[in-house]
Write a sequence for this structure.
């Protein structure tokens, strides 16, 4: 074996241990990377949530002076950017990383080290964004950062530079992890798992990965143009040099609208896994669900200008984008009806994951309906850039996304940690979050229609916005408190929660066929599946169309050594080098930038020379 | 299990009721920016379309949420249920039905949408045959209104005659803004490169609140304005006042203020001798982008005719003017005057209390 | 059947094969490259879009018809880059038949074509700046043009480094005998440049017209690949050695995919940026 393995370059000895902190830092195990993603995302959630609560305090009363205009602008910019890029996307990636190999019946993802790099780049990008707070001046032009407000004369500080570069890094991380997921799903399905037998969550990760690799480049290029403006003196978005700020809006929303589906589709996938299990029925219309997701994804690239009805694109463009946008409601409706039909005729047990999943369906419906309301341009002209929009997308991304994600956490937490979360606390969490959410965001529809624009740090008393804003602030703190229950619930579970066993929910998919938490190699024997509910088939062979293959092979092989990808230092080193290069660029410190870039190249070579699998000493 | 949460249900109803009462209390016809009480045909058509969609949405909401709640309550798992329920994988007829049904509902929304888009494309004919034309220019963080046919330039308060069609062009001298008068019409964005067009008609005299609806920097929240709809006679009187040549400053305090206005470099950004010349504001805006010490600022020739200033959030009177001149950041954080004018950036040139009083007297004499 | 075979297989071999098994039969890295190229399309698409938006926004600087009136050099560049796609194919063919020397030669010729392209692009930028007085600050036309072609140039540069790296990874491998370059690549390269077939030591002179090499190459492309030997007859070492050989071919194939993509993008850029401007307007 030694004859064909590449020699390891002598710079660093390859890490051999998977224990301790270094084990986590050098890990290439998709499950561990998933946990890292999840924990990091939850920490960033605290940052984004705290920003939201401070904003709600500021808006609680008219003419409030709790924070300054500049701080408020920074707060909503950070809130938006953090929640989109540092919470929802990475926590979706956390579930995808942990679950993909398990659901596919694989040992790992296709490119374990690339996977680690994605995580460390994400961490670097997230820390870079937060570093702006410490170095004076967070970005303050909104998560959409419409040019030309982001140009030097109007945003002279480094905040926008931090925003640009951290988004570039986060985008690169997302593209890498998406490519990885795509190859994993195409190439690492276990025996018998045709595309139409994949769990619906895997399907959705597959679709979302394509959305990411096609949409992220567009924002990357927009950011490159903005960087050229800010660093090299070009005029891409500068009117005085003939630059057109509307180009930024087009590029941003060509990315930004698919991004919305990137955020919401994975929670839809989680809900589509949870509802059948707690209804004891298969997902109603599996094929229709897959097709609907594909249709939503494709349409996602054809509707971006509905964010721009007030831009003045003309009646023909507005008519087209209105029609295309309304069409999105059709597959979305199919999904909602299919979820209800899954419940219909089932045996529903309202455990906490199911409560969150049903909360998702109920609240997402409201967000979907209000979405149709502003698909009509004349009606939207009164709604766009008001709190009506804030209400709409929070019903989609919080009422939908967050409830789905919480459902996912309650559902898969036992698989990840081996211990159950308390169901009673989970229900309390759900009801507090449900009430707090509606008290916060439902009145926003009316405040918005009453003429309260977004992104204002204060309002005068004569506007009559005060009462509802106070109510919203109260609701937001109820919502905030509900997360403390989640934290307490997790802590309690770690202190000695009930042992989960392999299959606590009587579930259908492969991840529940193995121990909780799963062993490092996932499966002793790679399974073979015959339907989209492989575990159900095993438990109910009398109902299966094709009885599952007997596991004769397992007996034959017994327990043998399974060769897994070896840990590596290079992902974390490369991510650190990239982040340092970005800081060098922000401060135009070109020696630092150059050295860091050189480190990236050296690391790249070391990476290539290092084999995926370590040599075994025989 | 259902019984365990039964006490919660009345609580939920109480909460929902309280929410509804608060929401209804939160919307009344006196709300200055409510889109529910339009005062012109453009906003009214937009509201009618909204209400059509709204009631359809309510119907969809009731059906979907009703079905969900019914299914969850009706099909709860009982303790004695050990057998699996019937394993239904789908139903093609049903699925086709609920694909087509939304299409029909959407068609009901789409057709009136197309009609309204088409209807609002062009302004309605003006009763006199000649609409009032206004050039709206967005600046950080104030609005400039030019009446090219009348030779008037003003800021913060836009005067229009009732019942006449007002067509406007929109243009920005710096960043992107959005022009919105909720009671008269929906938003139109304001760009530095593209000139947008819009129109509205006011049905009855009154003061309608307007605001910038696109994030444009620090004082975005204070970038408001008012549309003053007047009878034709009042409007004509206003035109006459605006077209009058600037009055000489009365002797005494105001005259001293006039001198200060010139010597303290106020004139670098503010014109006080009639309408700004062609390209003057634009050259100030370009100067700012290139790092110069100028910025497009409101024309002050007839300042005292305006009831409000500083983004229409402050009533024009001696006290508020003095507070503004002492430190403009008192009203508008980050404003360009405090950032650029030498009387604020250079401690040696700071305005004294007397100088402020003189300037206030001068400004209040500009009517 | 395969399952039955697997049951009688040496566990170590089974494990090795399990590592290399993919659902589609295509190696992971190849699927990755295709997906990555899909993503790249959007990068270039956005840049070309930005160029189209700004192509007439030349401000006080020269306009595109003026700048692109002379397209002789850029036509040569396009030709050489397209030619390099062909040499890339030859390199892959050599790799497939296990001819490491020819593979090395063709890959280096490909890299050389890329170098010529980059050099010419550098010269082109130099003349734009010094003769036409056009920098990214001049106008949005100039800036969007330079960012688009610069982004493409960076891709070509990356491709050159990658090609050379692929060659070096094979040539510097300990299993390779270290012959000085004057005895290995240089004669081969000279023989290609001069058209004189290279003579091996002790080789009897035999006429080998190049066209016959070409027809042989074409014939090979249409030949079905040799059927894989039955799995049971393999030892682990044999399997792994064969797999390593396949991996090396894959290295060439993947850099080839990338290189062809970069060439195709240049065809689009050449058409949209240069030809449209040189032809239309005045």
């Amino acid at each position: 074996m030694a004859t064909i393995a590449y020699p390891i370059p002598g710079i660093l000895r390859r890490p051999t241990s998977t224990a301790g902190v270094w084990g986590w830092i050098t890990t290439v195990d998709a499950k561990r990377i998933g946990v890292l993603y999840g924990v990091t995302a939850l920490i960033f959630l605290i940052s984004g949530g705290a920003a939201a609560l401070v904003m709600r305090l500021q808006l609680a009363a008219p003419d409030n002076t709790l924070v300054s205009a500049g701080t408020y602008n920074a707060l909503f910019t950070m809130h938006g950017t953090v929640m989109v890029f540092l919470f929802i996307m990475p926590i979706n990636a956390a579930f995808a990383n942990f679950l993909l190999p398990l659901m596919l019946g694989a040992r790992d993802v296709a490119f374990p080290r690339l996977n680690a790099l994605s995580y460390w780049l994400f961490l670097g990008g997230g820390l870079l964004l937060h570093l702006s707070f410490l170095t004076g001046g967070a970005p303050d032009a909104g998560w959409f950062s419409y040019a030309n407000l982001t140009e030097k004369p109007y945003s002279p500080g480094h905040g926008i530079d931090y925003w640009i570069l951290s988004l570039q890094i986060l985008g690169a991380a997302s593209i890498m992890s998406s490519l990885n997921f795509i190859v994993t799903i195409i190439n690492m399905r276990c025996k018998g798992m045709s595309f139409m037998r994949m769990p619906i969550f895997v399907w959705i990760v597959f679709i979302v990965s394509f959305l990411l690799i096609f949409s992220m480049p567009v924002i990357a290029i927009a950011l490159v143009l903005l960087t050229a403006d800010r660093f090299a003196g070009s005029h891409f978005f500068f009117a005085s040099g003939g630059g057109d700020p509307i180009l930024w809006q087009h590029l941003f929303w060509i990315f930004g609208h698919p991004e919305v589906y990137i955020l919401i589709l994975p929670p839809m996938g989680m809900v589509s896994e949870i509802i059948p299990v707690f209804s004891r029925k298969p997902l109603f219309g599996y094929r229709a669900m897959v097709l609907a997701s594909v249709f939503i994804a494709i349409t996602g690239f054809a509707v971006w200008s509905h964010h721009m009805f007030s831009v003045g694109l003309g009646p023909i463009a507005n008519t087209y984008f209105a029609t295309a946008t309304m069409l999105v409601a059709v597959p979305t409706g199919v999904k909602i009806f299919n979820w209800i039909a899954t419940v219909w005729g089932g045996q529903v047990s309202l455990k906490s994951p199911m409560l969150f999943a049903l909360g998702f369906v109920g609240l997402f419906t409201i967000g979907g309906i209000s979405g149709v309301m502003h698909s009509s341009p004349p009606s939207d002209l009164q709604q766009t850039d008001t709190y009506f929009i804030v209400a709409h997308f929070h019903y989609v991304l919080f009422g939908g996304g967050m409830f789905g994600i919480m459902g996912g956490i309650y559902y898969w937490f036992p698989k990840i940690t081996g211990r159950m979360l308390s169901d009673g606390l989970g229900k309390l969490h759900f009801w507090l979050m449900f009430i707090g959410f509606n008290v916060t965001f439902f009145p926003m529809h009316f405040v918005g229609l009453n003429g309260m624009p977004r992104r204002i740090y204060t309002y005068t008393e004569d506007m009559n916005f005060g009462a509802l804003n106070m109510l919203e602030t109260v609701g937001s703190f109820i919502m905030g408190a509900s997360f403390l229950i989640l934290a307490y619930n997790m802590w309690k579970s770690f202190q000695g929660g009930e042992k989960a066993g392999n299959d606590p929910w009587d579930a259908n998919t492969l991840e529940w066929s193995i121990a909780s938490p799963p062993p490092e190699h996932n499966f002793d024997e790679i399974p073979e599946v015959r339907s989209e509910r492989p575990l159900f088939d095993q438990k109910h062979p009398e109902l299966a169309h094709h009885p599952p293959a007997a596991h004769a092979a397992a007996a034959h092989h017994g327990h043998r050594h399974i060769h897994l990808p070896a840990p590596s230092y290079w992902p974390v080193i490369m991510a650190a080098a990239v982040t340092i290069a970005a800081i060098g660029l922000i401060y135009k410190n070109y020696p630092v930038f150059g050295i860091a870039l050189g480190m990236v190249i050296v690391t790249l070579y070391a990476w290539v020379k290092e084999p995926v699998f370590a040599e075994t000493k025989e | 299990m259902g019984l365990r949460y039964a006490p919660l249900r009345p609580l939920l109803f109480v909460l929902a009721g309280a929410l509804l009462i608060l929401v209804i209390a939160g919307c009344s016809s006196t709300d200055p920016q409510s889109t529910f009480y339009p005062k012109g045909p453009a906003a009214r058509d937009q509201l009618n379309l909204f209400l059509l969609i709204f009631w359809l949405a309510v119907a969809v909401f009731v059906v979907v949420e009703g079905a969900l709640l019914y299914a969850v309550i009706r099909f709860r798992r009982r303790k004695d249920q050990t057998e699996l329920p019937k394993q239904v994988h789908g139903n093609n007829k049903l699925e086709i039905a609920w694909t087509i049904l939304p299409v029909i509902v959407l068609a009901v929304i789409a057709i009136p949408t197309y009609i309204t888009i088409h209807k609002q494309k062009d302004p309605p004919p003006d009763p006199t045959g000649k609409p009032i034309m206004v050039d709206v220019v967005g600046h950080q963080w104030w609005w400039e209104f030019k009446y090219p046919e009348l030779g008037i330039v003003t800021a913060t308060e836009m005067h229009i005659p009732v019942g006449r069609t007002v067509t406007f062009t929109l243009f920005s001298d710096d960043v992107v803004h959005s022009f919105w008068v909720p009671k008269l019409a929906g938003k139109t964005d304001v760009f530095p490169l593209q000139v947008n067009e819009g129109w509205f008609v006011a049905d009855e005299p009154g003061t309608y609140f307007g605001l910038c609806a696109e994030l444009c920097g620090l004082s975005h929240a204070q970038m408001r304005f008012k549309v003053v709809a007047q009878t034709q006679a009042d409007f004509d009187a206003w035109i006459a006042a605006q077209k009058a040549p600037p009055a000489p400053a009365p002797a005494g305090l105001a005259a001293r203020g006039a001198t200060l206005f010139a010597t303290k470099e106020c004139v670098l950004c503010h014109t006080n001798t009639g309408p700004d010349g062609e390209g003057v504001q634009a050259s100030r805006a370009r100067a700012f982008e290139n790092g110069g010490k100028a910025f497009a600022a409101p024309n002050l020739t007839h300042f005292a005719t305006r009831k409000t200033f500083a983004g229409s959030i402050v009533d024009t009177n001696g006290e508020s003017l003095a507070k503004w001149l002492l430190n403009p950041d008192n009203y508008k954080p980050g404003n360009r005057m405090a950032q650029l004018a030498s009387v604020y950036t250079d401690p040696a040139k700071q305005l004294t209390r007397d100088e402020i009083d003189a300037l206030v007297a001068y400004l209040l004499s500009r009517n | 059947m395969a399952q039955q075979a697997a049951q009688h297989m040496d566990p170590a071999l089974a494990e090795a094969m399990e590592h290399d098994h993919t659902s589609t039969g295509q190696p992971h890295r190849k699927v990755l490259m295709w997906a990555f190229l899909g993503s790249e399309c959007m990068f270039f698409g956005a840049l070309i879009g930005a160029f189209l938006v700004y192509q007439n926004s030349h401000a006080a600087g020269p306009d595109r018809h003026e700048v692109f009136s002379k397209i002789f050099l850029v036509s040569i560049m396009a030709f050489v880059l397209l030619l390099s796609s062909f040499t890339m194919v030859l390199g892959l063919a050599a790799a497939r038949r296990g001819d490491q020397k020819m593979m090395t030669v063709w890959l280096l010729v490909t890299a050389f074509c890329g170098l010529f392209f980059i050099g010419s692009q550098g010269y082109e930028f130099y003349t734009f700046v010094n003769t036409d007085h056009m920098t990214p600050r001049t106008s949005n036309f100039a800036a969007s043009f330079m960012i688009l072609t610069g982004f493409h140039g960076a891709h070509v540069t990356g491709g050159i480094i990658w090609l050379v790296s692929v060659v070096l990874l094979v040539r510097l491998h300990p299993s390779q005998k270290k012959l000085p370059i004057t005895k290995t690549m240089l004669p081969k390269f000279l023989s290609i440049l001069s058209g004189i077939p290279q003579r091996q030591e002790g080789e009897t002179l035999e006429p080998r017209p190049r066209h016959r090499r070409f027809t042989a190459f074409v014939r090979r492309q249409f030949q079905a690949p040799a059927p894989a030997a039955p799995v049971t007859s393999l030892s682990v070492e044999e399997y792994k050695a064969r797999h390593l050989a396949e991996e090396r071919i894959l290295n060439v194939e993947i850099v080839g995919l990338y290189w062809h993509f970069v060439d195709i993008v240049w065809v689009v850029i050449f058409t949209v940026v240069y030809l449209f401007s040189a032809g239309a307007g005045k």
